[in-house]
Amino acid sequence: MRQIPNYEKAYISGQKLRKYLLSETHAIGKAKAKFFRSLGFNDDNIELFEQELMTIAYTEFVAEEIRTLFGIKYIVDGMLPTPSGISTKIRTIWIVEPHDERPRFITAYPQRMFATDKRSTT
After folding, report:
1. Maximal CA-CA distance, the chain
2. Phi/psi class of residue 40: alpha, beta or left (left: φ > 0; alpha: ψ in -120 to 50)?
3. So which domain of life are we looking at (predicted)?
């Protein structure tokens, strides 16, 4: 088991949380926004949301590594404490691109969204 390479340099770019993960109008992000908002995350405590996601990058181990043309994606699962008082298991995805050694946050979603994934192994 290992952590994301250069995890101490991990970052979440600009408006990623506000315009994607917490956006109720984003074509792809709105289902995730509904989930995270139901746990108390919103525009008023976005810094807390970012801090909790960064804590997962800093403290949890890589569950899976995926090599792509754009870089290496790191799947990192962890517990997310929330403003509602509930902690929930989520999956975060980070990428290290060939031109930048810093892991960049891509997305996060509840573990139950992938818990029933039955990928073929043949």
Report:
1. 47
2. left
3. Bacteria
Q: Token pair for residue 112?
A: 């139950």
Separation CA 2–CA 63 (nearest Å)? 9
Any idea which residue has 């952590």 for tokens? 3
pTM of this structure: 0.88
87-96 and 104-110 strand pairing: antiparallel
Domain boundaries in the chain?
Answer: 10-113
Asked if 78 and 92 touch (Cβ cutoff 8 Å), the reply is: yes
The C-alpha atoms of residue 84 and residue 82 are separated, in whole angstroms, by 5
Query: Cα separation of 68 and 40, whole Å?
Result: 34
Distance, CA of 61 to CA of 77 (rounded, Å): 8
